Amino acid sequence: MFGNLFDKLKTGLTKTKENFTNKVTDALTTAIKIDEDLYEELEEILITADIGVETSIDIIEKLREKVKEKKIKDPLQVNDCLKEVIIEILGEDDNSIEPEQTPELLFIIGVNGAGKTTSIGKISAKLKSKDYKVLLAAADTFRAAAIDQLQVWADRSKVELIKHSEGSDPGAVVFDAIQAAKARKSDVLICDTAGRLHNKKNLMNELGKINRIIDREFAEAKKKTYLVLDGTTGQNALIQAKEFKEVCPIDGIILTKLDGTAKGGVVIAIKHLLNIPVKMIGVGEGIDDLQAFNSKEFVEALF
Q: Where is each Signal recognition particle SRP54 helical bundle domain found (predicted)?
């Protein structure tokens, strides 16, 4: 099973590998010596792989130190040093989605189209398979499609869904879901929320109202907020994360659609600049393709 998941990860990251690692290998293979020109070329490759300017500069600085410390002269040996630096930047994994205590309330936020509802469906299926009693709340009431899509996932995962009609007050949905979660002794309540960022004040007010309801009605629950980002948007995903972080605290990031993009390097930038744990990454359509993020496996799959 482990090998199968790693193979899926490796396959899913093929486009990023082509955009990043293969170029690094070419640069190191053709280099005659380790000099300023090589470091500049590597920095450029990192930036074009959506790792971003700031993170790329930091990686190259750390790479210089490591190469000097290990007294490396052969350009080909720089590859392993680069892997080590990226693993160090990604840091310790914090990828468990299982509740630390029950009941737990998972607040899932993110812009429309990022894969928020699908991620909720896959997370609920994973938790259900581990014998947690899961309840879903369709609090993204601005899109009928979001409610319908969540119902499909609820049916597929064999979990219950609390929903109102399109255009209903999201706070009322969350209120009803909390009462249902308490009555049914649910372990985890997962709330889908409206994915709007164009008006930060509205979003802040909406999240503030929902949080007040949770604090009042479900004070005993451990509350966590996960942000879903579309990996295909590269550096825009990083900008979104910064903007959402200004509105509410974020406990973890779920990065989707990495199988369809060459911009998987943004994972490194997110961890480096925001210091928010990447909980899960999506490398395909299936339930098992939403995987717990493991930094060493991620880097191994890239290289």
A: 9-90
The SS3 of residue 161 is strand
pTM of the full predicted structure? 0.89
Distance CA 226, CA 99 (A): 13
Domains in the chain, CATH or no CATH each: 1-302 (3.40.50.300)
Give binding residues as ranges. Answer: 110-117, 192-196, 256-259
* Rounded-to-10 torsion of CA 12, 18, 23, 25: 60
pLDDT digits (tens, 9 = 90+) for 34-92: 999 999 999 999 998 888 899 999 999 999 999 999 999 999 999 999 999 999 999 88
Q: What is the DSSP string of 220-276?
A: TSEEEEEEEEEGGGTHHHHHHHHHHHHHS---EEEEE-GGG-S-TTHHHHHHHHH--
